[in-house]
Specification:
By secondary structure, the chain is an alpha+beta fold. The protein has 12 helices and 35 strands. It folds into 2 domains: 4-276, Jelly Rolls; 285-501 and 549-597, Alpha-Beta Barrel (TIM Barrel), CATH 3.20.20.
Length: 658
């Protein structure tokens, strides 16, 4: 790719270092860098254009002394007609210089409103020379509330730093409440790199839920493991964004003075890349809502999570309760059969009040959050699911507060603080994400369940995947809702798509799939298929009677989840399936696949970057031939158990082809 000769030189250096130390990444270093196995490119800037992409990069504009007593002023692309930050010859350039008696430089942030939680982050950089320089490739959390989560409590990740008075010594560090340089407790490591200021080198970070490992040219520099589930020790459970900057002087860069004869000096960056592990069938979620009023005991092997519906906010707005706690205990006991199963209490539901006065008061919020933690401990729950319907427009009839969206974020913050990182915190989102400030509150949540159902009613589909002829003007469909949630700042691997296990009459009535089938069998209702919206519906005497989902539409929606790399699927609700469990088995088989492993094609383990299937006779869940399979997708061979099952469903449900 870029500058192959230099890359080969870096490779030889890295191979020598790894041979000497015996540690480092085991992947082969080529023009793609040192990428750990199992990661796929999620975002990059190769700086191949002629200008900085300001859709991705944002400038920090600050005066001298703004932070760390640094001497430079951070400006934009140019200052008084001279270039400070720019792109040319396939490189990003940040120039620190003195212009009209003022020292200026650049600091840019990659996608600061979105960021990434976990992944492998890498940049190829050539460092500047001179006493006083302080270049850095580092990360800070998205949408920090500095009043409640100030530095260092919020966390800081320094992938690479160097100071000019100590040339060619590159360091990696983390900062948090327990470990930071103001206490002299920061976790850091320094490495001598002879050509750091003369050649390009690759600086990387692999960040997972349990540890961070920093690399220089593939050689391990520092490893920091999560010791405890405390925010003070591990605040790295939300999204961070990368930063590139070149500071001048300051507490560290100027600790031994500065030499202005070194100006102008230049930080050069060949590329910045972010890799993430795709959502695989082993990590996908199948979330089942199980109600307190049903007597049906769920099969604990056809879902990964159960949201027990419902709990509520106590009348004093400071506590939490659950309906039918004896049934809740029975549901929790299912974990003895399936130890991997997670059970959460879903607090809220349609018409449940108490959220507005609870969330509006700081003392009430804290008390409620702490009560949730105690409740989880008491009943052996794995977390809390907040189903407030809806902030700013309460279905309970309570008058919403003017700042309800902000209060919702504060509630999530307080819940995360009380629950710690060992318990799950999720939410049920309206199909319209504008009710929430996801860019602020995602840092506190594990994932979001989107209610992509009840979006309309007859004569319109209530759970259409795409906009068709029977979707009312102005109503959302599932695809549009998912796209809006992604645009609102929810990472795809934290977004769970809702699936309807019921029929909607538009009269506040929900009927089960079994009741739907009984109506069809009676001859009074006709079953129909909308091939644009990709959902079935019933008509009576030619009029639209019920919109619903069946195995066919759910299979298509599961394929959509896989193709868009979403975290999984959620359904309301378990007891509304038919007597054979058609819907729950369809969703689990399609998204997890464990029930039909013999029919699922597995990628070749020997080729992680160019995964191929063992045979070309491969099909997706819709029966479409696939020649270039999607990593993390589920595929089957003709005649396999999964393939036969889907074929049988198609024939049973419709005479039309998928």
């Amino acid at each position: 790719m870029k500058r192959i000769v230099t890359m080969l030189s870096a490779l030889l250096t890295a191979v020598t270092l790894m041979a000497q130390t015996g540690s480092g990444l085991t992947t082969t270093h080529d023009e793609s860098g040192y990428v750990p196995e199992g990661y796929e490119l999620a975002w990059s800037d190769e700086f191949d254009g002629d200008d900085l992409n300001t859709d991705d990069w944002k400038f920090e504009i600050q005066n001298a002394g703004w932070v760390n007593h640094e001497l430079q002023r951070y400006v934009g692309k140019t200052f008084r007609g001279k270039r400070v930050v720019g792109v040319a010859d396939g490189r990003l350039s940040i120039v620190c210089q003195k212009i009209d008696g003022e020292i200026v430089s650049g600091r840019i942030k990659a996608r600061p409103n979105e960021g990434w939680r976990y992944g492998y982050f890498e940049a190829r950089i050539k460092l500047p020379k001179g006493k006083g320089t302080w270049p850095a490739f580092w990360m800070m959390p998205v949408n920090v509330d500095w009043n409640t989560n100030p530095w260092p409590r919020c966390g800081e990740i320094d992938i690479m730093e160097e100071v000019g008075y100590h040339p060619n010594y590159v360091s990696s560090s983390i900062h948090c409440d327990a470990y930071n340089h103001t206490k002299g407790t920061q976790k850091t490591h320094e490495m001598y790199l002879q050509t750091a200021e003369d050649e390009y080198h690759i600086y990387g970070l692999e960040w997972t839920a349990g540890q961070m490992t920093f690399y220089v040219d593939g050689r391990q520099q520092l490893q920091f493991k999560k010791e405890r589930d405390l925010h003070a020790v591990w605040p790295f459970h939300y999204a961070f964004y990368p930063i590139l900057n070149l500071a001048w002087g300051g507490d560290w860069g100027g600790a031994q003075g500065v030499d202005e004869s070194a100006l102008p000096c230049e930080l050069l960056v060949d590329y910045v890349r972010v890799y993430r592990k795709p959502v695989s069938e082993s990590s996908r979620k199948v979330v089942a809502y199980v109600t307190s009023w049903s007597s049906i005991m769920p099969d604990p092997f056809v879902m990964t999570h159960i949201n027990y519906a419902f709990g509520g906010v106590t009348k004093d707005y400071r506590g939490v309760y659950a309906d039918n706690t004896s049934r809740l205990q029975q549901i929790v006991k299912l974990k003895e059969k399936n130890p991997k199963l997670k059970v959460l209490l879903s607090v809220g539901g349609w018409g449940r009040g108490g959220f507005t006065p609870m969330a509006a008061d700081a003392d009430n919020r804290k008390a409620f959050a702490e009560a949730c933690r105690r409740f989880c401990d008491q009943y052996g729950l794995d977390g809390i699911d907040i189903d407030w319907e809806f902030p700013g427009d309460n279905s309970s009839g309570e008058k919403a507060a003017a700042n309800e969206k902000q209060n919702y974020t504060l509630l999530m913050r307080d819940l995360r603080e009380a629950l710690g990182s060992d318990l799950l915190l999720t939410m049920a989102s309206s199909s319209d994400p504008s009710r929430y400030d996801f860019r602020s509150c995602m840092q506190y949540m594990d994932f979001v369940n989107v209610m992509t159902y009840d979006m309309s009613g007859p004569p319109n589909h209530h759970s259409a995947l795409y906009r068709g002829g029977t979707v009312g003007k102005g109503y959302l469909v599932a695809h549009e809702s998912i796209m809006r949630h992604l645009s609102a700042g929810i990472p795809a691997d934290q977004l769970v798509m809702g699936l309807a296990f019921y029929g909607n009459s538009g009269r506040g009535e929900q009927i089960s799939l079994q009741e739907i089938q009984n109506k069809i069998a009676s001859g009074s209702y006709r079953d129909n298929w909308d091939d644009v919206a990709k959902v079935p519906y019933l008509t009576k005497d030619g009029a639209f009677a019920y919109g619903y989902d069946n195995a066919r539409s759910l299979t298509i929606k599961c394929q959509y989840i896989i193709e868009h790399n979403l975290a999984g699927g959620m359904y309301w609700e378990y007891a509304n399936d038919d007597n054979m469990g058609t819907e729950r088995h369809t969703v689990y088989d399609c998204l997890i696949g464990n029930a039909s492993q013999s029919g699922i094609e597995q990628p070749e383990a020997s080729a992680p970057q160019t995964r191929k299937l063992r045979t070309l006779q491969t099909y997706d869940l819709l029966g479409r031939a696939v020649s270039n399979p999607h990593q993390g997708g589920i595929y089957f061979k003709k005649g396999s158990p999964l393939g036969s099952r889907l074929t049988t469903q198609r024939k049973a449900l419709t005479n039309n082809r998928f």
